[in-house]
Amino acid sequence: MSGRIFRVATMSLLALGVFGAALAARAVTNVELVGPATPVGPGTEFTMTLRVNYTSYSVVPGIYSFKISFDKSQFELVSVKYGNYTEFQRPSVSISSYYNYLYISDTNKNYGGICASVYTKNFAYLLLRAKKDATPGMVSNFNFVTSGAYPTFKNCAGGTITPAYVGAVVTVYDYEETTTHLQQYLDLNADASWVFDEKDLDFMNNLLVRNKLNVENPLQVKMGGIQMDFMGHARAGYYDLAYGEAVTRPTRFISAGPNGICNTTKIADDVQMISTSYGAANALAILPGPNNILDTTQAGDDTRYGQTISTGANGVCNSTAVGDDLQQIPLNQGQPYALCIAPGVDGYDGDSVTLTPLSGDDTRMASPKATGAILQTTKYRQKGRVSSIVQVTPLTYSNAAYLRNAGDIPVMVRVLDENGYPKSGVAPLFTITSGNGRFRDGRGYSTYIQGQPADKFKGLGNAPDGAVGGIVHMPLGETAGTRVDV
């Protein structure tokens, strides 16, 4: 069997869409379709509200039967639920088999009797789903069809109501991939939050430290491919963990509080930056006044440096400013909010379970990093563009492999970026162009296969980083050879 690489095609990301609804200008009396207030992603469900909105006077609705046009190639109906109008509790909805129409109707349960008058109420909630293959950049309308017998809207006594009908405009913008849709994939510890947070970092650290990434054990969690591969090198590792730590772990510490004296004692692996009962050493305590001459004489272990006085080793100001000098740190106090205790290697104040108990006026400081702007909502960019494909197996003389009997031969390549690093998430197409060998996968036997991560058939940790490929089954008597092109 010989293999030949004749073309490299950069994998284009799936063109998805995000949707936002914009309403037409409101009339005095409306029946409205109200779309989602925030964009929704492809394959994501969203609510379209059918609302009666009378701003000048109340009405007494009895029956509604509306016909709504929409693009079935972009959206699909999931379900319908009654709204907050308690007299309308059984909405009925259907989709035309031939046309882009949705029909929805309901009858006031008190129709013909005593019905309540309202100004604004929601008749029903239509649960819709944006299809995954929605066209990027297109604009889609949800409109009431007012021609012919539709829509029908009557009051409780049977008379016709003629309001203004307001549709919704849903726009699909040109797709720019974000990591928002990967949140569930990044949620390693499967907790209540899908957001990638420091609990997931702890989980990832445990996997790496305990070498659980490259172990063939069905009871252990395995990570490979693009999961947690922030650096784009085709396998999660310590550099990816460091990236996650730098982005996600909050900057936290315990300060010495307003009086500048550290009263708290560290626990766990925290680092005691200032000893208990001390302040920050060498902090600026007294400055000269407008005459630019220091009139104060230092006291205690305070130290004079030119025209300034600093606290000494104990970090407590023992000097009192005289003349026009400026007292920067009050007498018998330290530098306010100085760094008293820093987190240890685990990044926690205390540990992941127990917070360090505070003493005196010390304060707990935490500054969350912009994880939402970096991991959850930023544009995702691979580290380098696809540049080359390198053959991994078979790699013998003339790129040929030989079997004595019928059997399987792994065919693998590595996709590299312009910096020579393996690329993750790229699956080239392997095609058998001659011979009787066939790829073997879940479909049975085939003449083509989309490259699969080599860990699937080499064993996790045993395949080269970034290797993808498939298994070719060679039948008995295949003497002419089978050719695979990538």
Overall morphology: flat
Query: How much strand?
Result: 25-35%
Kindly, what is the distance between the CA atoms of the first and last residues, rounded to a whole number of angstroms?
Answer: 14 Å
Question: Roughly what percent helix?
Answer: under 10%
Major β-sheet, in short? Answer: 7 strands, antiparallel
- Figure out the total of helices: 5
Poorly predicted runs of 5 or more residues: 1-28, 214-226, 376-382
Number of DSSP strand runs: 30
What is the radius of gyration? 34 Å
| Helical/strand content category | mainly beta
**What's the average pLDDT?**
77
What report would you give on this structure?
The chain has helices at 183-186, 198-209, 238-248, 371-376, 455-458, and strands at residues 2-4, 19-23, 29-34, 45-54, 61-69, 75-82, 92-95, 101-107, 120-130, 139-144, 152-155, 164-166, 168-172, 251-255, 271-272, 284-287, 303-305, 308-310, 326-327, 339-342, 363-367, 386-393, 407-417, 429-434, 438-441, 444-446, 448-450, 452-453, 467-474, 483-485. With 486 residues, it is mainly beta. Strands 2, 5, 7, 8, 10, 11 and 13 form a 7-stranded antiparallel sheet that branches. Strands 22, 23, 25, 26, 28 and 29 form a 6-stranded antiparallel sheet that branches. α2 packs antiparallel against α3. It is flat and about 95 Å long. Mean pLDDT is 77; it is low at 1-28, 214-226 and 376-382.
